[in-house]
Amino acid sequence: MGVMAIILWHFLGRPSADDVKEFVGGIDFGDFTDVLKNISDYDWGDLAFEEDPFVGDNTTNAWKTQGAGLSLELQNALDDMWQSEFDIAVADWQESEVLTLTTSRVAVDHSCGRVDGVMLVCNGNFGDTGWVGINEVEIEYQRQDGPGFIISSVAKMNEYYLNNADFKKRRYTMCHEIGHGFGLPHTDENPHNKDLGNCLDYTSTPENNQLPGDANFQRLRSIYIRGEGDALGGANGNANGNANGNANSGGSVQQQDSVVTSGGGNNRLRGRHLSSEVVSDTGHREDDEGQYYRRVIIRHYLPLME
Ligand SMILES: *[C@@H]1O[C@H](CO)[C@@H](O)[C@H](O)[C@H]1NC(C)=O
Ligand SMILES: *[C@@H]1O[C@H](CO)[C@@H](O)[C@H](O)[C@H]1NC(C)=O
């Protein structure tokens, strides 16, 4: 068993032997399971090559704005136990000059129903799923060849792991999931390398990554301030002018059946190496007035990391 296999196993999320069997669908890996047992106590801190940040999906998503910052309402559907984590995380993100956040406390919602135009933040016991937090952003496309924009975000805290967890772990999870709701990607998906000091970095030592960091704030500027950096700022400008135009002008809108790409209702992460996935996609559709639309839900995972 070579080093590459060990690295592979590591980046698969260090699954158990049973999960590996499930994952590969019964392929006979011979003594692979022995190796899993043998290396479970390996000291990953010794591996120098793990220092570089690693991200599977480094793309940003964006709410539609005028290119001068993001104003967003966060609906607080959390129960009493989560109020201070929420208040602290909102204040920490508000340190970005790009963000103007308002909060409203709504009825506790353990089922975390999405709401148009807002980020809903909630907690619930989602079970032994392998993830401590999830953010699901829904993206809407109004033109077939145009940019998609976030129309809702749901940040979920999993009580199964967080109920009696250390405050620092809860605070890290809250900061992390709220960050995705602005459209931010992870900054690093290897929990065993050096901590980057921002809460979108996977870590097994949450006390090091309690706050949003400069990397996150810079990325927010590039998404929401026109003329700052990458394409999304420009895309926002364009979309403001064009997104409500006639979607049929190209004459190429197709009607397709609803497509669920993967996952669907399956919230289970264990044994799957996933930091994000598309869990629903309507495909290209028209509404009753013949307007083009397509909606996609992208789920970002914060895996259980011990
Ligand atoms: C796992 O460790 C045991 C005990 O040290 C050893 O006998 C066995 O050969 C190892 N298995 C593999 C696949 O390295
Ligand atoms: C992700 O993209 C940003 C912006 O392009 C870049 O600065 C950063 O280094 C990338 N991160 C990784 C881990 O590739």
TrEMBL record:
The keyword Protease does not apply. One of its GO terms (molecular function) is metallopeptidase activity. Keywords: Signal. The keyword Signal applies. SUPFAM superfamilies: Metalloproteases ('zincins'), catalytic domain (SSF55486). Residues 237-252 have a biased composition (Low complexity). Residues 1-17 form the signal peptide. Residues 235-287 are annotated as: Disordered. This is Peptidase M10 metallopeptidase domain-containing protein. The lineage of its organism: Eukaryota, Sar, Stramenopiles, Ochrophyta, Bacillariophyta.
